Amino acid sequence: MGAPLKGFRDYPPPDAGARSQIRSRMRAAARRSGFVELETPSVESLDLFTTKSGEEIVRQLWDFTDKGGRHVALVPETTPSLARVYGARAKAEPLPVKWFTISKLWRFEDPQAGREREFSQFNLDILGVPGIEAEVEVLATSAAVLDSSGAEGLYTFRVNDRALAEGIGRARGIRETAPYFHAVDRFRKSPPEEFLAELARAGLSPGDARDLNELFRSVAMGVRPADAGPFFERLASLGLDAAAREGLERLRGILDLAEAAGIVDRIVVDPTVVRGLAYYTSSVFEAFAASGDGRSLFGGGRYDHLIELFGGPPTPAVGLAIGDQTLEDLLRENQRWPDGEPPLETYVICVREDLRGEATRIVQVLRSRGISADRDLLGRSFARQLREAARRRARRVWLLGLKEVGPDAIVERDLSTGAQREFPRSEVQRSE
């Protein structure tokens, strides 16, 4: 009984405080970009996720029959819930809609590095914008969100277009998109022999499979925007159909607008990014550590038809989800994880027992003024109270009852510089 269930984690202090700081920074960054917060339930009807979430998530659903006889599931991703909410509010909601969510989610899968059965995601979604402005706005905001968390300079965005990806496969003879995308999605996770076998199972001839393998491996690190022109010409020479060429032009447009947004240096074009979820319709993107190590930091893309599945009007949409565990791993590996709870502003120390009531009053006055403050609750010695103030990373201590000053004086000591000043207790009055 001393440990949580498999796939679940405790976050005791200071980790819980550090996670709270990260979420606060991310919230503030999203709001600076004009996003507003949405909150949805942790349990939804099972049908919400079996409709269009994709086979992998359906296999991982934590579903059950509740006491009312309804077949429900713990929420494994936020987008279907968002689509349900918007579908019900579409007539009253002015466009564009820019929502962010911070949600706890559940997937019944084997726990591994960067992935537990219970986790949190930070989502950004824009509804009602058909053009690539939405993709760039979401990517630019995600850059601000990641930078605010402490990850500046540590990540790379990998972008692609599913219409282009599907067109590349069609030019090589694929007939069914799902098995082909499944194979491509596993490119980075599979050794060459296994990847070729996956392409063969998707219907490609050995020669076409080898050609695609060579194409993908030649740009395994992604194509920088400065080199995108020759690469796009190479793709066009494959004999792409009209839909794939439109996808190629969308990618060109995203790179151009990303330069104006100041994020083009963080982007590479990656033809192997297709995303596993079934509802993506064109642009797709993922973020990885710039070193190339580790799991994806986020995934997302355009999902223009999802709102209609939940009774809403046809609504273009773009979104992405940032995972908490992979982001935490990245920050820790680079010594950028916060210390925990913010430092205490003031720790009130009383030298004499008869001043404990006065210490309590002063602490409450400070708190009423919005200043974080605390005092000893265990009757510890003066020296131990000073050690506790240091452990709490207090910026200053207020000392009551020192013999070398007047009986009604407070001595303030800055714990970083050692500087002191003296002032009368009468200056600390309750706010009315």
Q: Number of helical segments? A: 15
Q: Which architecture name of the largest domain does CATH use?
A: 2-Layer Sandwich
Instruction: Give the oligomer, counting copies of the same chain as homo and different chains as hetero.
Output: single chain
Overall domain count: 2
Low-confidence stretches: none
List keywords for this structure.
5-stranded mixed beta sheet; 432 residues; alpha+beta; 38% helix; 8-stranded mixed beta sheet; single chain; BirA Bifunctional Protein, domain 2; Rossmann fold
Explain what this protein looks like in three dimensions.
The protein is of the alpha+beta class and about 425 residues long. The chain folds into 2 domains: about 15-335, Bira Bifunctional Protein, Domain 2 (BirA Bifunctional Protein, domain 2, 2-Layer Sandwich), CATH 3.30.930; about 345-425, Rossmann fold (3-Layer(aba) Sandwich). The chain has helices at about 15-30, 45-50, 55-60, 80-90, 135-150, 160-170, 175-185, 190-200, 205-220, 230-235, 240-260, 305-310, 325-335, 355-370, 380-390; strands at about 35, 45, 60-65, 70-75, 95-105, 120-125, 155-160, 265-270, 285-290, 300, 315-325, 345-350, 375, 395-400, 410-415, 420-425. Helix 5 (about 135-150) packs across helix 11 (about 240-260) and helix 8 packs across helix 9 (about 205-220). It is elongated. The mean pLDDT is about 95.
